[in-house]
Each structure stands twice: as structure tokens, then as C-alpha cells.
Amino acid sequence: MAISYCVLASGSGGNSAWLRGGGIEILVDCGLSARQIEHRLAAVGQSADHIHAIVCTHWHHDHVAGAAVLSRRHGIDLYATASTLRRIPGALSAERLHRLPSSGRVEIGGLKVSTTPTPHDAAGSVALCIADADTRVGVATDLGTPTPEIRRALAGVDGLILECNHDLDMLRDGPYPAMLKQRIRSRVGHLSNEQGARLAAELVHAGLQHLTLAHLSETNNTPGKAAGHVSSVLSRMGASWLELSVAGQHHPSEPVVLAPRAGGAALTPASTAAAQLWLPHMND
After folding, report:
1. What's the total number of domains in the chain?
2. Is 284 inside any structural domain?
3. Cβ–Cβ < 8 Å for 87, 79
4. Does 283 map to a domain?
5. What mean pLDDT is predicted for residues 94-117?
6. In angstroms, rounded to a whole number, what is the distance separating the alpha carbons of residues 43 and 210?
7. CATH number for 270
8. 66, 42 contact by CB (below 8 A)
9. Is the pTM for the entire model greater than 0.85?
10. By the 8 A CB rule, do 7 and 223 touch?
11. Listed residue (267, 127, 138, 271) closest to 201, CA to CA
12. Domain of 48?
């Protein structure tokens, strides 16, 4: 059985994604209230009663707000790095808490969850690669800049949830104070559309089936601008097979059902040098 997943919410107002694979269902992040998570799951035909684990990428409120309440209400185990576990609001019993390594791998049911540190202003922040026997999904948001380790971790995935947080012009001309603009653009902030497009180009390979753009700012970006940057790059690379979607803040995205990888072998992503040929004007 290949992995299927659905982004329930994505943006500064709260983030969460449902994923099924390896005989279990998990949530990646739980940044809405427990009630909202339950409603979003019901909207896509799922139930919190079937969730085996919540895996939190970092401790910012928009990723952990409802995690403790949902865990208590439905008896769900919670996985996060030590720094994140200490900052999740709401007390949980020790038997429900499981420590993720900041760089390593744990098995949750039939899923293998690999973690890679991300440069973000939250101690213990990680990107995820989640694999069953047939497919792999990468989750990379809230990172100020892609590192070589993140590129290696995401190489060969079958599905990818990737940050395209802001449009540079909209951020520059927008209402945020200068200090916040600087934080967002910093190396521990968030990826711009240009940076997201560059990373996507570096990770494109023949087996990448679906790319979901995520964590868009409602103030400093639009779905059209994010998709326009990335689709233009993909078109120039000839990646016509790749399905592209944009996750939103207020409604779940369409579920993605991956096909098992032929022969079970990972495919090689485009090299960084080749990808740069398509992106001569994009800067970090």
C-alpha cells in the first residue's frame, strides 16, 4: 500500500496534514484547535479516532496549538524533538510522549519517520521524510534556507510538501514592520517563492508524483504567485508529469494518493548544477 495524504491547513494561522501509510494514520503537526482538526478530518472523510500518532515538526504555536488536547481526547501518541516536547502547551502523560531525534529515524507502526534539522528560529525544528514499503513523502516548511542535509534527505521522494511562504515584492512593500520582514527573509525564517522554486527544481526527478506548495503567507503571498513561480520552472525543466497543488489556510486540500514506486527503487533527483541552469535570476 502506498502513502496517501491531505494537507488539512497550511499557513501562519495553523498547520496540519493527515497521512496514511504502513497500516496507520498520523498527523504531521497540529496547529489548529482540536475541534478544528476534527472538523477538517471529517471534511475529507477521516476521523481523529483513527489517528495513531501526531508528529510535530517544531514548537511554534501554528504547529502545536491543538496537539495536547487532541492527544488527550483521542488517546493519540505524540512525537517531537526534546525541545519541542518541552514547549507544547498542555500537560500530557509521559506514556503518550515520544522523543524524536533531531537527526535520525524512528518507526511508528509501519512508517519510518526520518528527521533532519532545519534552520529556523525554533530550537529542535526538523524536516520530515515519511516512508512505507512503497513510497516516501517529504515535509519541508519553516526553513530559512535549504541545507545540503535537507536536500539529501528529500532526494527521491514520491510526494513533497514544500514551503513557498512569501513573494519578495509583496513582503518588501507590505504592512509588516521592518524587523519582522528581516526575520522572515533571514536564514532562520521562511522560504520565498523563488527559494521554494529553486529547491523544487533541485529535487525534481522522474518518480516525483506530487508537489504541494505550503505555508503561504496570506499577507505576503498569493496562491497564484507561488504556483506561477514553481510551475514556470517545472515547465522549463519539462516536468509535465508532475502534479502541482497549493495548500490553503481555511480548507483542506484535495487528498493525494501516491502510486507505488516501480521496483521499489528510489530515483535520482536533478542535480543542483542542472537545476541552476533554469534559475539564472533567483537568489536566496
Report:
1. 1
2. no
3. no
4. no
5. 97
6. 21
7. 3.60.15.10
8. no
9. yes
10. no
11. 271
12. 4-277
